[in-house]
Amino acid sequence: MAKTSHLMGIGVATAGVLCMFQGGPAASQGKRGAIPHAPLFDTVLPGTSNLEVAVNETEYASGGINPRHLHPAAITFYVVSGTGIWQEDGKPPVTLHAGDSLFVPAGTIHTHWNPSTTENLRFLEFIVAENGKGRSIPQPAEK
Questions:
Q1: Domain count along the chain
Q2: Residue 79 maps to which CATH number?
Q3: Are the C-beta atoms of residues 73 and 45 closer than 8 Å to each other?
Q4: What is the DSSP string of the chain?
Q5: What tens digit of pLDDT does each residue of 4-63 get?
Q6: Is residue 75 part of a domain?
Q7: Which of 36, 52, 73, 116 has the fewest CB atoms within 10 Å distance of its CB?
Q8: Residue in 116, 108, 101, 98 with CA at minimum distance from that of residue 73
Q9: CA 86 to CA 94: how far, in whole Å?
Q10: What is the per-residue pLDDT across 54-109, written as a single tens digit (0 to 9) for each?
């Protein structure tokens, strides 16, 4: 009995270590670790009837993730502090540090997460879109 218990313990520990070396977030994860902030700026673009400009501050606690999603409008990310990983479907992940930015075209399915176990990730999102069409639209996990 003790030998079986010991072997089960080794199996569980091995599985845990393998999970730590996983290249990216598990596809089945939902959005987690997001710390809410009010939009920094959100207004209708002067001279238009339905284009809005939005700037959002986003913060993820350590291990925070926003799994596969898209935005109907193009979005530019700018990292304020911490380190984050962005990955577009079919492309390798890109690591961004404070001061880095990334443009993601409209309709691009992507994921982003905070790989740190100790520090938060803070970034800004810049969006110009038809009124109400710049928000995130979750996508099913890849199979």
A1: 1
A2: 2.60.120.10
A3: no
A4: -HHHHHHHHHHHHHHHHHHHT-SS--TTPPPEEEE----SEEEEPTT-SSEEEEEEEEEEEEEEEEEEEE-SS-EEEEEEESEEEEEETTS--EEEETT-EEEE-TT--EEEE---SSS-EEEEEEEEEETT--S-EE-PPP-
A5: 444 344 343 433 333 333 345 544 457 888 888 888 999 998 999 889 999 999 999 999
A6: yes
A7: 36
A8: 108
A9: 5
A10: 999 999 999 999 999 999 999 999 999 999 999 999 999 999 999 999 999 999 99
**Residue 121 domain-assigned?**
yes
- Residue 7 lies inside a defined structural domain of this protein: no
Residue 41 lies in a domain: yes
Residue appearing with tokens 């099913």 = 140
Per cent of the chain over pLDDT 70 is 78
φ, ψ at 131 (rounded to 5°): -50, 120
- Each residue of 43-53: pLDDT tens digit? 998 999 889 99
